[in-house]
Specification:
Number of helices: 10
Number of strands: 22
Largest sheet: 6 strands, antiparallel
Helix content: 25-40%
Bound molecules: adenosine-5'-triphosphate
CATH superfamily of the largest domain: Transferase(Phosphotransferase) domain 1
CATH topology of the largest domain: Transferase(Phosphotransferase), domain 1
Distance between the termini: 49 Å
Shape: globular
CATH architecture of the largest domain: Orthogonal Bundle
Number of domains: 3
Structural class: alpha+beta
């Protein structure tokens, strides 16, 4: 279950210290910490002495001690959902729940009353794979596995309601196991009600304005399909959201703009066309437009695609290109490029120490205004990936004239939608009073070629 970060619900609980290896939890012995979420900590564990013949497992420990009654109720409710789903909807693409219990007298007083779920132990998560660099040949297979799991859940009358790479686990054989059913919701008719929790980056547009009733927030299977669209984009872009913004709230604002028809969907062009189209269908802006794209129908399309000629290969050179684009475009709307491209004929260049910003997206060039979706980022360090955490607060737009004092020829490569690529960057001055006082413009974001010295 995710931490509460729906609108109007930002309570945080104090974390307890993690259990050290060797701690006894029920009939299990902790061997190491795997990770922590908003409300739970997951440990690797093996059968305790005297309980042989059982597999190694993962223990999800959800403390309830010291929580406000409302929070404790949420934990209990979350555990109930996990147990209920595990009991009724088992499937090879879902992590299996072996047992659950409440810790009565743990050696750790802070864990008195904690709820423990004993689960099949996964070898890792899709998030870890994305972070480590997901081999191109595995991408289609993993997305198909997620669809299989979702198709089963939806057929069984459940919505996952918290699909994200952290909750896509991988069995020892590398196959997908969906996990974390703390928000999973059983459908009554066309929809169910989930607690007002979840992960902002995976909320569809309609969720941002969904009223919170007594039963919770209304969710439908199309919410999972939207989240799947975001996950597909992440799989092909080293974890980038299709929506621009440096924070989940900013990306959420971009989702709402898109949902209201005020901004287009801007997907990374490094994504092979089949997957881009599939993700775009998942990311249809309304529930109604998304509804025809069920997990089942998406799975059928993927299966046909993977059986077809060239299955699994993407397009030529796609792997390297995707990696470069991912670093180039992550979190940045409308990245533009320098390549070693000549300046357009007949265009008088600016003064030697200035560069005019060029946005590769035509709509942004024609816009003429300062639409946030058309702003471009300047890097803090050209040697680091060109991602949201490596850009300064100052944004620039097509046509802005910047003062440049030197160039770096061997920075991170940046590639744009028009396939221009360059490792060149220009150091540009920021407005007076800015900290830092300079930042870096990828040379692909201007068509100007000033003669500048190499930066020291
Ligand atoms: N059965 C399992 N086997 C192996 N790793 C697991 C298992 N279940 C969860 N994990 C990993 O443990 C970590 C913590 O999981 P947890 O469900 O507590 O939080 P989360 O999903 O990261 O965040 P949140 O639930 O707050 O959204 C995650 O990295 C997850 O991938």
């Amino acid at each position: 279950m995710s931490a509460p970060h729906g609108p109007g619900d930002t309570t945080e609980r104090d974390r307890t210290d993690p259990l050290p290896p060797g701690s006894r939890v029920g009939n299990w012995e902790v061997t190491r910490l795997i990770g922590s979420g908003g409300w739970s900590t997951v440990y690797a564990a093996r059968p305790a002495r005297g309980h042989p013949g059982r597999p190694d497992v993962a223990l999800k420990v959800m403390p309830t001690a010291g929580l406000a009654p409302r929070q404790a109720r949420r934990i209990v409710e979350s555990a109930r959902r996990e147990v209920e789903l595990g009991r009724r909807a088992g499937h090879p693409r879902l992590i299996s729940l072996l047992e659950s219990f409440v810790l009565a007298e743990p050696g750790h007083p802070a864990l008195r009353g904690a709820i423990v779920l004993v689960m099949e132990r996964a070898a890792g998560s899709l998030r870890e794979l994305i972070d480590a660099g997901l081999p191109e040949t595995d991408r289609g297979r993993l997305i198909a596995g997620i669809c299989e799991g979702l198709a089963h859940l939806h057929r069984s009358g459940w919505v996952h309601a918290d699909l994200k790479p952290e909750n896509v686990l991988l069995g020892a054989d590398g196959t997908v196991r969906l996990s974390d059913f703390g928000l999973a919701t059983e459908l009554t008719g066309t929809h169910g009600y989930a607690p007002p929790l979840g992960t902002l980056d995976y909320f569809p547009p309609e969720r941002w304005r969904a009223p919170l009733g007594e039963l919770g927030v209304r969710v439908r299977p199309t919410a999972d399909i939207w989240a799947l669209g975001v996950v597909i984009h992440e799989v092909f872009t080293s974890g980038c959201s299709p929506f621009p913004g440096a924070t989940p709230m900013a990306r959420g604002a971009a989702v709402q703009e898109y949902g209201a028809g005020r901004a287009p969907l801007r997907m990374d062009h490094a994504i092979p066309p089949f997957w881009r189209e599939l993700a775009a269908d998942c990311l249809a802006p309304t529930h109604e437009a998304r509804a025809p794209h069920t997990a089942e129908s998406l799975l059928a399309r993927i299966t046909a695609h993977r059986r077809g000629p060239g299955a699994g290969t993407g397009r030529p050179g796609g792997r390297a290109r995707a990696a470069v684009l991912a670093t180039a475009l992550c979190g940045i709307a409308g990245a533009a490029l320098y390549a070693d491209v000549p300046a357009p004929p007949g265009r008088a260049g600016p003064a030697p120490d200035t560069v005019r910003v060029y946005n590769a997206e035509r709509a942004c060039r024609e816009d003429g205004g300062r639409d946030p979706g058309c702003s471009l980022g300047l890097a803090v360090d050209p040697a680091l990936p060109y991602t949201a955490d490596n850009v300064v607060a100052t944004r620039v737009w097509h046509g802005d004239l910047l003062t440049a004092d030197c160039r770096a020829p061997d920075g991170q490569p940046v590639v744009d939608e028009e396939d221009r690529r360059s490792t060149h960057w220009f150091r540009v001055r920021l407005p007076p009073g800015s900290r830092p006082s300079t930042a870096w413009l990828p040379a692909v974001r201007t068509r100007d070629r000033p003669t500048l010295p190499e930066c020291p």
